[in-house]
Amino acid sequence: MSENIKVDVHHITRVEGHGNIKVNLEEGKPDVVEWQVPEAPRFFEAMVVGREYHEVATITSRICGICSVGHTLASLKATENAMGIKISETTTVLRELLKHGETLQSHILHVGYLVTPDLLRVGSVLPLIKTHTDVVLLVTKIHRLSNEFCDIVGGRTTHPIRARVGKFSKMPDKKQLVSLKERLVESVSDLKALAEVVKSLAGELPDFTRETEYLSLTNKNAYAFYEGDCITTDIKAPLPISGYKEIVNEFIVPQSTAKYGKFNRESFMVGALARYNNNHTQLTDLSKSVAEMLGLNGVCYNPYMNNIAQVVECVFAVEKSIECIDWLLAKDLKVEDDFFEVKAGSGSGSVEVPRGILFHEYEYDDNGLCVNANCVIPTNLNHNNIQLDFEKMVPEMKHLGEKELQFRMEMLVRAYDPCISCSTHYLNIEFK
Amino acid sequence: MGAKPKVAFFDFASCEGCQLQIANLEEEVIGLAELVDIVEFREILTGKAPEYDIAFIEGAITRDVDEKKIKDIRSRSKVLVALGQCAVSGGIPRLKNNNPSLDNVKKMVYGDKYNMPHLDTYPTKAVNEVVKVDLYLPGCPINNKEFLRFVKEISLGIMPKLPNYPVCVECKLKENECLFDLGQICLGPLARAGCDAICPSNGVPCEACRGTVDNPNKNAMHEILEKYNYTVEEIKRKINIFGVDPEVKK
Predict the structure, then answer these.
(1) Which of the ends of chain A has fewer CB neighbours closer than 10 A, N or C?
(2) How many CB pairs under 8 A join A and B?
(3) Are B44 and A114 a contacting pair at CB < 8 A?
(4) Average pLDDT of chain A?
(5) Which domains does chain A have, with CATH numbers?
(6) What is the complex's ipTM, to 2 decimals?
(7) CB distance B45–A14 less than 8 Å?
(8) Within 13 Å of residue A20, how many CA atoms lie on the same side as its CB?
(9) Cβ–Cβ below 8 Å for B15 and A45
(10) Distance from CA of A328 to the nearest CA of B (A)
(11) B105 at A interface, C-beta within 8 A
(12) What is the C-alpha to C-alpha distance for residues A11 and A183, in angstroms, rounded to an integer?
């Protein structure tokens, strides 16, 4: 005898943006299992047309508050590629540092404030202030550090100010860099403590696997965040990012204002787990040991483990930030003069944002006015994969009952750390 | 207010960066939770409430479905605050309105599928173009210290006020070199202060992301434009980024 199952989550909570989950399993009726994205679309690609090249990153940064560093950097890289602008090594290192700051900030926010309540089965971090004070204070301490980190390097935590086309408009103060480094060194033990907490709760992550294609940047010199080519678990050799359209193959579906994507399979996954699956051999020793401690031992097909891959990347980001700061402290940091010529051209740029690979592409006219734009957002790229995970998990987990099934579906969506504003803006669960 | 005020947060078309500024208050959020009851804040907690003493609205209104939702929130809220520039003026999402054809805007993003019903959109509106707004907390993103001040003052029954002097004042206090002297066009003389001149202090001209002061000194602005050889058109173009009325009216 089969039980009728209905799940209806309208605007799932503890995610950025709006999404719905809808499940209806009823005897004699076709099954409904749907991930819907009803976010209000904002039409960024149309908004930047006609704007000057130096305004474009200011505008596209506003695609997403949480990934504003990543959007700024992808945008600047695309503009620089369009105009053939080569940036200095100092600018590159500053951008890498800023990127690591964002990775730490976003992952800690997600794992600490948004996922931990699931692992402890409460509605938010607020009740944990009383019941798990130490954990909350640990998370806020690391999160505060990561925010001040982005402030010191980018001039502002959200929507960085100093990262400009070709250069930084102001250099970080060396005294602040020294103190930032000291705090980052100290934070390693905080992150280890956090990893222990996560380890004690990791049993709450459902045991669910579905092999898919994992897409990320890759770089032979480093675990890629700022620079690289595209790689997936289904291809042998990396592909240049200039051919991104043939990789992401975006398409439009009726249940979503965000576009979906696919490459060699019906769907792919991007984000921390995809980066880990493609590039884990390039992690530092410490971040590898944290991965092992948390049960990540090489390629993993459990999407819930994206949360764990984020913890691993926090450790990695802190270690790499310390290296970047050491490099910068040995240099004479001065604002560079404008050195490039504004000219017509088109170009694309890509970085790994916390939620996965991000592409911006622009075309400019002779006056440096934007004539065409395209932005491919990682959360979009994951929507199709979430849908297919749902289709596999619902039959596997429906015996647990409606309530538990709904909980695990919401938890799955959160594991992807969707940024639906980015992807257009939306997430609900409806079980009908 | 006797009992702790019930506070809720809602978001429409935006990057949710202003709510993020609130999450970024860290330990101060814990203090805030002592002062007020946060009853709805979808980005960080699960829960709903029937009515609100203070509703903070992030984002611009771009669809009929959202217009219905904001009207419903308004009917259940004592004080409604437009949180951040998207809500205050339409902000960045208002750039869409620069294009005379909404169909073209949709085609640029969704191609030949642009007419699918769920992709519907109308010209971006600020929240006060749809419902009555009691208070404005401008900025892109907001200054989270100003947010804390707003919550404290509203809780004490005081109507918070915004600084009504230009960014130039804060910039001069910080002893920054004037960006006009460095060959850049800056909106500091018109723009509403309260950001601590954060952009000029980082070497980037002000873009008036907090809108303008109530009665901007247009004559002074004209003199500056003349002195540095810029046109009014250049100012209008720039002030348009954050959805501020180019005619510089309140």
Answers:
(1) N
(2) 169
(3) yes
(4) 92
(5) 5-428 (1.10.645.10)
(6) 0.93
(7) yes
(8) 18
(9) no
(10) 19
(11) yes
(12) 38
pLDDT per position as a tens digit, A205-240:
999 999 999 999 999 999 999 999 999 999 999 999
Number of domains chain B is built from: 2
A47 touches chain B (CB under 8 A): yes
Chain A residues inside the 8 Å CB shell of B199: 161
State which residues form the domain around B180: 167-239
Rounded to whole angstroms, how far apart are CA atoms A14 and B174?
39
A157 interfacial to chain B (CB closer than 8 Å): yes
Q: For residue A114, give the DSSP letter.
A: I
B24, B110, B116: residue with CB nearest A157: B24
* Among A9, A13, A42, A250, the residue to mutate for chain B (most B Cβ within 10 A): A42
How far does the CA of residue A233 sit from the closest CA of chain B (Å)?
Answer: 29
Residues B22 and B143 in one domain: yes
Which helix (H) or strand (E) is A373 found in, with range? strand A370-376
Most confident of A4-18, A19-33, B22-36: A19-33
Residues B101 and B134 in one domain: yes
| Confidence band for A251, pLDDT divided at 50, 70 and 90 | confident
**B96, B106, B110 ranked by CB distance to A47: nearest:** B96
Chain B, nearest residue to A10 by Cα: B42
CA distance linking residue B247 with residue A246, whole number of Å? 45
Q: From the list A55, A257, A259, which residue is nearest B241 (CB)?
A: A55
DSSP track, A141-189: HHHHHHHHHHHHHHSSSSS-SSEETTEESSPPPHHHHHHHHHHHHHHHH
pLDDT of res. A425? 29
Alpha-carbon separation of residue A328 from A120, A181, B1, B190, B202 (angstroms): 41, 11, 52, 37, 19
Let me know whether B149 and B188 are in one domain.
no
Q: Which chain A positions have a beta carbon within 8 Å of B118's beta carbon?
A: 38, 254-257
CA gap A350, A76 in Å, rounded = 10
Per-residue pLDDT tens digits for A256-307 = 777 888 999 999 999 999 999 999 999 999 999 999 999 999 999 999 999 9
In sequence order, the 6+-apart residues with CB closer than 8 A to the CB of B215 are: B250
